[in-house]
Amino acid sequence: MLKRTLTALAMAAVGLPAIIYGGVFYFLLMGTFLVGGAWEYVRLYRAVKHEPNELVTVGGVLVLVTARFFFADFAIPVFVALIFLAMTAHLFAFERGRDEAAHDFGVTVAGIVYLGWVGAYLLDLRNLVSNEMGVWWLMLVLPRVWATDTGGYSIGAVYGKHKMAPRLSPKKSWEGYFAGIFTSVLVATFFAYAFSSMGPRPLAGFITPVQGGLLGLVIGALAPLGDLGESMFKRQSGMKDSSNIFPGHGGFLDRIDSWIWGAAIGYFLIQYFIL
Fold this sequence. Notes:
The protein folds into 2 domains: 1-127, no CATH class; 131-275, no CATH class. By secondary structure, it is mostly helical. The longest helix has 29 residues, at 131-159. The chain has helices at 2-21, 23-46, 54-70, 75-95, 101-118, 121-126, 131-159, 174-197, 209-222, 224-237, 252-274; strands spanning 163-165, 169-173. Helix 2 (23-46) runs antiparallel to helix 3 (54-70) and helix 2 (23-46) crosses helix 11 (252-274). Strands 1-2 form a two-stranded antiparallel ribbon.
């Protein structure tokens, strides 16, 4: 417990300033998590005899998130070029005798898409509208993910009777799932009210408490699927955690599994239904 707490405090000490200041500092923070997650992704699949191309997967995620953050106009051509590069690499692998190269190609592309393209919404959300406003949108969305996890774990551990996904995550229950949604709605409603009606009111005129509650409802309902998705990777590979780089917390993927879903969903909901 002490190890887990100290690790969490260290991550907060590094992460909060990067979130607040944004720019290159935030890019380095989230870029590290996404690229580290790509490295773990390759490791998980190699444990079950798949051979995604490590250089293309990890390097592709790095190149793609860099393009999305600094050179947005070129992000789609870069994305297409990476898919072509992945196929080329696995064509060579097949010629060298790797009969499962077509399957490996699919795994490589999935890693680039999920962590490089979808994961980059963690960066896009922080810059939504502007650097100054983006921090408030990020702080409106990510705490919903944490609230969902905390509420679900706390209630599920005590009252959980009905298993939600026993093969993927035996400890998750439907009671915990719905408790997580309720917590997410509650926290989202309060944050939307606070950011639009209290103190400096950074989001005044942009969001109402009702909209915040609906945002929390959707994120609370869907973000846990990111956690279950990563559990699927781990169960298939026979590993408990994606790595042990964060003592007591597992690896990069263990930290960002729900963040990715929450950031992408939050970005589109805010972009198309709130702004």
